[in-house]
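User: Hello, can you help with two protein structures?

Assistant: Certainly.
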Amino acid sequence: MRFSRTITTSGSLLFLFFFLYSTYLLAPIGVEGGSARVITVTSGMGVEEIAELLAGGNLIRSKNAFKAYGIVSGSAHTLKPGLYPITTAMSTPKIVKMIAAGPADLVVVVTEGKTLKDIDDQFSELGLIAAGEIAKFPVNAFTEKYPFLAKAKTLEGFLFPDTYRISPDATAGDIVNKMLENFTIKALPLFGRTGDELSPDWYNNLILASLIEREVPFSEDRRIVSGIFQKRLKIGIPLQVDATIVYLACEGRSKGCDPLTKSNFRIQSKVNTYLHRGIPPFPIANPGSDAIIAARNPKTSDFLYYLSAPQTQQTIFSKTLEEHNEHRAQYLHL
């Protein structure tokens, strides 16, 4: 009897160990709060290749446990190709269930101030398009459906920042159409209309809104800066918007290149608001509603200069060049 009990106890302990170890191998690697990584399951991939893909991305604890669970659950032969947003907070059973169910729409958040190339990068990194597909689209591919693009020299400024649900099989054209349709609904009404026509200055206001979006982070300061822009345009002095230099130096992106140098401010381009008076020939980013409203509703003030404090991003206003230079020394150490 003692021998029988020993075998039973050993078997129970072995089962408990196996159960706990299996549970551990199927558990999430991380905790809630991490950002999702989009993995691409291509047509013809089997459970072993998918397990390799997930293990290589450090998204599961064990590829063997993934395969075993897929087989035991009956899902191994029902895993479907597509794009899947997976976080380290997801367990192996949850991942298997997701891939067996098939791809759902991806939720993509395009934030204010991103450029055309930024947005192209964002969608290509998700695997939805090939790099450069959106950025290279000619404007005239969309002018028949969206006549307001007739004034545009580029799609820059028209890809309205918002949260989008994108089908995994969407083309670059589908994505651009969705964003232009959103611009039609949410942005165009902000520019004012004369009868059925947009106000004559609406495109210039879109350009100014893009400058405001990139230059001024806080809503309460934006109308004041908009007023400064109008004052500078009226008296014929350059706008001197650093964001236009970033756009040129970063080759159409909003960030990711080296810090600005003196030579960047000498780049020969009509986008350079230090060398050329007036506004750039096209937007330098895709502004949101708040920046558009500020561009349309400038606030009159005594200020003619401003700068952004690096630590707080607060906008510091000045009435005179002397005062502005004092602020440059204080906040920028220039």
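That covers the first. Now for the second protein you mentioned:
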Amino acid sequence: MLSRLTKTRPEVGFCVACQLLMLAASLPFYSSYGLRVEWSTGVPQALVMGLLVALLLNFWYLPGAAAEWIAAETVLAACLLFVISCIASPAQYLAVAVGRPLIDPWLAAADASLGIHVPALAEWTREHPSVRALLYLAYFSLLPQFVGVLMLLGLVYRNSERLWEYLFHFHLCGVLTVASLALFPAACAFSYYGFDSTLPQGRFLAHFNGFRTGSLSVIRFDDLEGLISMPSFHVAGGLMLTWAFRGYRVVWVFAVLNGLLMAATVLSGAHYGVDLPATALLFGASVVVHRLLLRWFSEPHPAAAESPAATVVTAQ
């Protein structure tokens, strides 16, 4: 069953390739920048991964009927999602430790050209407690959504295509946003302008500044913080989650929730206004690349096309 899946779903190979690429680009360089990963703090993550692998092995040896394979696909998707998260989260700290010049002045100038002043927007949010609470809940709904969408697509809607498309976007956007953090870091709007965001940012400031200056050097799995600002992985996450349910009635729930989530990134003062269109372009590029990948695997290669007896495996 799993061998069939890797042949018919090219996204599986793509996700594994992204994970290997990020490992190769990060793991050998932690010590070069004076960083150390405290692996003992990752025991809970190891236990979760062990459980997922055990479930996967169960499907390997007892695959069941073809109609039941979507459950195995869902578990495999969960494994890949969990692994890339465990790779990318500490890689953010390495990206910050690289110490490239901050691009905040450019982002602030871009906002000014659009007539956007983030401190004023954050102050408006602060003056409306009900709006602030709503945006807070929407912003922190991202992690439960990332997990819940696997269950909905795989076990409720039983849509293998959408499940793997979602995994593709998660991996590609994750790799590109971490790479962007390394090359073009931003300290976020609240830090640049010097005001308090309506979202708690104390740990972000401590980790971003500490690892950038070298005053912090130990990465703990039980104390990880999102450090990516531009493009925003929160915005990319909201887009990919909503996109996954296009054509379903439930898409309106995700559209409203993630519309609030994306609005919260700016109205809270956490991100620059220009982060939103920039991330939309990133996600649009991810959609195009995914379609090109499927087209590549669905079309016969020249050698196969010349052979009448050749069997072409298409992405389904």
